[in-house]
Amino acid sequence: MGPRIKLLPDNIANQIAAGEVVQRPASIVKEVIENAIDAGATEISLHIKDAGKTFIQITDNGHGMSETDARMCFERHATSKVRTIEDLFGISTFGFRGEAMASIAAVARVEMQTRTVDEEIGTRIIVQDSKVEEQLPCPTAVGTQIVVKNLFFNVPARKNFLKSNNVERKHIVEEFIRAALPNPQISFTFEEDGVKQYQLTKGSTKQRLIQLFGKRLETGLIPVHEETGIVKIEGFITSPELAKKMRGEQYFFANNRFIKSPYFNHALMGAYEGLLMPEHFPLYMLQLSVEPIRLDVNVHPTKTEVKFEDEKSIYAILKTTIKKALSEHHAGPGLSFENEPIVEQSWLRNTPTHSPAPFKNTSTAANSGSYTRPVVDSGFSKPQAQPGNWKDLYNILERQTEEKAVESVQQQTLPQAEEKAKPLFQLGLTYVVTTLQKGLVVVHQRKAHQRILFEHFMSLTNNASSQKLLFADSLQLGLKEYELFVELEDELQNMGFAFAELGKRTVSISAVPADISTELPEKLIQDFFEVYQHSQFTDTLSLKEKVARSLARSASIREGKVLKQEEMSSLIDQLFACEMPYYHFDGTPIIVNITTADLDKKFSVNR
Questions:
Q1: Which among 566, 587, 589, 592 is least buried, having the fewest CB atoms inside 10 angstroms?
Q2: Which domains does the chain have, with CATH numbers?
Q3: Helix %, strand %, coil % for the chain, to 5?
């Protein structure tokens, strides 16, 4: 019997490597921009079409490549970064494995033009399916231009797994931001389908943050700087007032490389303990600099997962540094390194115990507590379990238990209007509670208000009533938010908003829906965009329902809101005027019935 183990052909080996390196268009953007940064570029431009699926062009003014290097860069494991095994443990650049260009060329058509400063003419190479189709001299500027066309043309199965253009575009924008943030000394341009989306000029880190995320950060950015023998920490965090309801702009970089670190995020959130409203998160951009030999970036092909030599000490230093920065800017209690031991403390001793401060409600809607009964004409029915739609909500047994509780509430509450005249009280500033003949009814105040607003927004037609603002409020949007604004503007206007574009991704808000508060409309829209971006919508939802859900979440009262007796009564009245008062639109219950029988079991009482 002959040998069974054989070397793979280069094109197959490259496609296997591409499976790790090139997962979607954003993977190409990441790899090629990192190569441009490594090449010393001071100007980098990105141009995509069809969310990168059919066309990606990245141009830089770096040092370029010779004809030989241009050809070699498409070979597997060909790199200028590693010569010895010691080099692997002292890496300070991005690309070093020598897989990126070979992997990209294995699943797309790649056209490269490049020239070094000491050459009069450059080189043009075309590679497709790992085969060089053309290599010729060509006139071109110093630097490198790479065009990637028809991604996954030869791997249809992988192409079918790509998401919608909106999803793929968001991944590209995120990779662009991760490259641009820690490199304010480089100017970046991002163009999509012929429309310029970003024009980032050279400047400081603070200026880069404002360019990317808007002028709202100008007064709320807190600088962070600390240098020890273990790590140097620098960057910016935001004051607690600018915290948002969703995790969004949170970035850690290790030696200029973006990393994902729930461990260090835990340290940072511990430093904010007692300063944030419930379910709010600060923006941060922090650079952790250590000696390259103390950082292993060769953990994962995407290189976003790294390993620090002394993570526990860095955790403690990071937490104390953030506390110190907050204190110096009057956002937290006084703290210095002299009065708090840090390096010797272990992970367990540093684990924050969250006890959120009392919630001071500054939400944009229903803040006054005045509820107007919505006109409901949505025709919703009780949600039915469908395969895939109810995953992670609750299992069948829990669902049956909840339905029995709801039926009990229906039987006791709806036919007995006099029961609602009984006093209502709040529990934990989260629940509205009243008594029935055989127990208690507990209503989640935030979910109830969201249900009310959701059905109200769904019932609106194109002529929804608005309330004009005394003074129009302007809002500068980041690229992600502006893309959403363009996509959702018509639906938002149908629900009662009025906008005007002022240029440079700035919009003015002159009216809001009649049934929500006119306070802080700018914050309402910001919260709406944030909620919409981070919501997990199913494909079966219409655009109107997605907007209605997100707007209801953004405009609703929150846990911690103190309600007066008449406010609680009005909330309950409106809830029971809804088509489906018992279930939130995410499928979870709004009302829980606690019967005397339930209490008897808790107290081991036999009747």
A1: 566
A2: 10-200 (3.30.565.10), 205-350 (3.30.230.10), 396-596 (3.30.1370.100)
A3: 35, 20, 40
